[in-house]
Amino acid sequence: MKSFIIGTAGHVDHGKTALVKALTCIDTDRLKEEKKRGISIELGYAPLKLSEDITAGIVDVPGHERLIKTMVMGATQTDLVLFIVAANEGMKPQSLEHLSIFSLLGVKNAILVITKIDCVEKLELPFIIQNIQIVTKGTFLENAPVVLTSSYTKEGVEELKQKISEFSKQFLETQSSHRATLPLRIPIDRVFTLTGFGTIVTGPLLFGQISKNDEIEIYPHHLKATIRQIHAYGKEYDILKAPSRVALNLRGVSKEDLKKGQVIGSPHTFKAISKASAKVTFLKPVQGQEFIFHTGTMRTNVILKKKNILQFSDPLVLQPGDKFILRRDTTLGGGEIVNVSVNTHKSIKRGGEEVFWSGSKAQPLQGRAMKRKTTSSPPLLGDNGQALRILEYFKKTDTSSSWIPIHTDDICKNIQMPRLEISEALLDLIKQAKIIRLPQGYYLSCKQGDELKEKIKTFFKTKGELSVVDIKEIFSISRKYAIPYLEFFDEQKWTIRRGDVRIPWKILE
After folding, report:
1. H-run or E-run covering 16
2. How confident is the model at residue 420, as a pLDDT?
């Protein structure tokens, strides 16, 4: 099967979902709340069969201004944009913001679709098109083909299918084949379970190819799983190549282990990073360095340093060439990742000891995260008051017997500082071996970290397997906190995952 991905764009209530239904006979608004409110809230998906061997996957995005973060998630996987403008309203605020987003993402392939032509007089259509083309001059829509449609009367729908078919032939011949030769990458956008099948994830197969029974790794948490089944557009496949929308039935991981924003790849292929250099473009001059960073299905806080260095509050899986969007309350800019080795993280060996390498300083992995240094260490960040305030907050929590880790949200709530300043200070404290980071944004003091290791070591001296239930009992915590602990044990190589349990690895060495 040959495939590519189509994304919709346009202002709320301009007929995106109705047009997708007219093209595919599928209503992508599947949620009760979407039916009730009459607008799209989540991304919707529908296959468009163009021939016996070509099927396009349509990603229908919400148009409401409060759902731009969801819209961006769909936009970053798009090969062809159906830019939709209602004839009776013309270009509206979200039309313009969607136009900016796709421009920043470097999208070049588009069809301008004028919807709801049954709501205006035929004589008005040339003037409507002209007004839209004036606004979009100089953008990727300037030379895009224009199709006039009505989802109510079905006028223009077949013509639009024909335009999409014409694009597919050119795209599949010239642009898509190279992507299948690159390392496997699938950003996860949905996670659920099905009775009799287990864990299911969906996402765009952006690069590489995937086969039934392949072993895969889920980044940045380094979970291992096996492909049990591959589905695309209602059919099962033994092998599938990029680009395509896919649904994967996974063996070896549970729904609770997975979440939107993680990335599926081949084992030992990617490393999570906290910094990258980039080409950054702003739509207009902006104040401040703090933004929300969007790419693929990932979203996190970022600080822009030296005009081209991005420092993320959470580890991300990125590659050179990846496009991104920078937002606050509105879209401010975007760009392209240039280099992901600004702060390369990798494990090396030094005198038989595993070392965590970051930039120009090397520190033992266990020492960096777990051991309290007995030798003198450099002063804590000079006059970094933010880090000192956060460290004091951690010391206060040490007085309690609770093993509930501290989340970034807790710190933001109790310390009145910008979130991204807090994230930067946390990174400094980790480097200084004052705190340790658990997955999913949780933190512990190093004092608790030392006790944590001893508790797990003691457990494994009498038992061979560690489960979620065991963690809940040992630390008197809920599953919500147990999962980050288990993921941390795997990262530290204390344990290895075997199905739903962990068995000891280096914890007893």
Report:
1. helix 16-24
2. 63
Shared-domain flag, residues 78 and 115: yes
DSSP secondary structure letter of residue 207 = B
Q: What residue ranges of the chain have pLDDT lower than 70?
A: 29-42, 62-69, 176, 342-380, 382-384, 398-401, 418-420, 509
Rounded to whole angstroms, the maximal C-alpha distance in the chain is: 83
Give the per-residue pLDDT at 282.
94
Q: Give the domain extent around 13.
A: 2-175
- Quick one: pLDDT at residue 236? 92
C-beta separation of 428 from 274 below 8 A = no
Identify the residue whose tokens are 């995937």.
210
Q: Which of 74, 69, 28 is nearest to 47 (CA)?
A: 28
Reduce the secondary structure of 424-451 to three states and give it as a string.
Answer: HHHHHHHHCCCEEEEHHHEEEEHHHHHH
Q: Which of 125, 158, 175 is the last residue of a domain?
A: 175
Question: What confidence tens digit (pLDDT) does each residue in 498-509 have?
Answer: 877 888 888 876
245: enclosing H helix or E strand: strand 244-251
User: Which CATH number characterizes residue 164's domain?
Assistant: 3.40.50.300
Report the alpha-carbon distance of residue 457 to residue 313 in Å, rounded. 31
For 398-432, what is each residue's pLDDT tens digit? 545 688 888 887 888 888 776 667 777 887 788 78
CB atoms within 10 A of CB 166: 13
DSSP label of 213: T
Q: Would you say 184 and 208 are in contact if contact means Cβ atoms under 8 Å apart?
A: yes
**Residue 507 near residue 495 (C-beta atoms within 8 A):** yes
Of the candidates 227, 239, 176, the one whose C-alpha atom is nearest the C-alpha of residue 206 is 176
Strands of 353-358's sheet in order across: 345-350, 353-358, 361-364
Predicted pLDDT of residue 412: 81
Same domain, 142 and 240: no
Q: How does DSSP assign 48-61, residue by residue?
A: EE-SSSEEEEEEEP
Question: Are residues 419 and 326 part of one domain?
Answer: no
Within 8 A by CB and 6+ apart from 490, the residues are 221, 222, 223, 496, 497, 502
Please give, one letter per residue, the 3-state secondary structure of 315-367. EECCCCCCEEEEECCCEEEEEEEEECCCCCEEEEEECCEEEEEECCEEEEHHH
Task: Single out the residue of 282, 256, 118, 158 nearest to residue 199, CA to CA.
Answer: 256
> Which residues, 6+ apart, have CB-to-CB distance to 356 below 8 Å?
345, 347, 362, 363, 364, 365, 368
In the chain, the N- to C-terminal Cα span, in Å, equals 50
Q: Among 3, 425, 43, which Cα is nearest to 244's?
A: 3
